[in-house]
Amino acid sequence: MGFHYHAKDQSFRLHHTRDERPNLQHFFLHYEQGYEIYMFVSGAGSFTIEGSLYDLEPYSILMMNHNELHALNIDENLPYERIVLSFNESIMPPILLSGVDLFRSIKYRKLGQNNQIPADQVRSSGLLDLMHKLMDLLKQPSAENEFVAKCVIVQMLHTMNSLAENGIELTAPTPQTTKIHDVIAYINDHLDQPLALDELSHRFYVTKYHLCRIFREATGFSINQYITYKRVHKADEFMRQGYPMTKACFLAGFNSYSNFYRSYRKLTGKSPRDGKSE
Questions:
Q1: How confident is the model at residue 49 (pLDDT cuts 50, 70, 90)?
Q2: What CATH number corresponds to the domain at position 51?
Q3: pLDDT at 134
Q4: How many CA atoms lie within 13 A of 102 on its CB side?
Q5: Contact between residue 122 and residue 59 where contact means Cβ atoms under 8 Å apart
Q6: Is 235 inside a domain boundary?
Q7: Which of 165, 186, 218 is at the close of a domain?
Q8: 9 within domain boundaries
């Protein structure tokens, strides 16, 4: 079962997919080039986003921005159904926005925090109805329906902004996750500098062994793996802004182009030149 729609101007895409037997090899750590609204429909599992673990609840929503590494942890013995809406800021021309930042609730959160909107709020806020309306429009494709679909997405963003600005605390961090979020924030602010484990351990007053253990428990990967993912992502951003590949790799914190090239190929399956041309 599956429904896929790609906007003519590449500003958004939507897919509604059901896997009777999920293949775990299809779900891996990744980041978006824009924004993602993910609605879980059925199955069992969790989502890991920047050190936070979110249990999946039918019709709950997760929102991710392009800086948030995330990975699905799904039960392969149950059918898995979801609706995923991906989009970028070109979905509405700047002249129509009149200085309003529609994307603020997704864009300006602290990494890995308050990503999830519980199912009861999705229903009571009208987000579930809006998602159904969006899919109904796109199942009858036309230029007019695509434009109206964009307006529905704007309604969804407005609703999500309202929920966020009403002070709803969607996650309750534990002391351990608070420590990991602090480490993650520091890493992301200093990607262009050396990030040795000894220095991180000293800065956050924790032994190297304990830091490595709690980081892997929270994120599912090692500190070095996380730093490499983030530097590859940062280099991608620089290349999309027009920087040459060599300069982009050093700005992102790699100490050599060969190290960058190997890491890029390993994590994306492409060469930096192929990624730049997308």
A1: confident
A2: 2.60.120.280
A3: 97
A4: 22
A5: yes
A6: yes
A7: 165
A8: yes
Residue length, the chain? 278
187 and 160 fall within a common domain: no
pLDDT digits (tens, 9 = 90+) for 2-27: 899 999 999 999 999 999 988 766 66
The answer to whether position 8 is within a domain reads yes
45 backbone dihedrals φ, ψ, rounded to 5°: 160, -160
Query: How many Cβ atoms from other residues are within 10 Å of residue 267's Cβ?
Result: 17
Distance (Å, whole) CA 2 – CA 257: 41
Same domain, 148 and 181: no
Distance CA 69, CA 79 (A): 25
Residue 122 sits in the same domain as residue 241? no
Spatial CA neighbour of 7 closest among 157, 131, 102, 141 = 141
Do residues 193 and 253 make contact, with C-beta atoms less than 8 angstroms apart? yes
Q: What is the pLDDT of residues 89-133, one digit of tens each?
A: 889 876 567 778 889 999 888 888 889 999 999 999 999 999 999
- The answer, yes or no, to whether residue 212 has pLDDT greater than 70, is yes
pLDDT at 50: 87
Q: What is the residue range of 193's domain?
A: 175-276
Classify residue 225 by burial, with Cβ atoms within 10 Å: 0-12, 13-18, 19+. Answer: middle
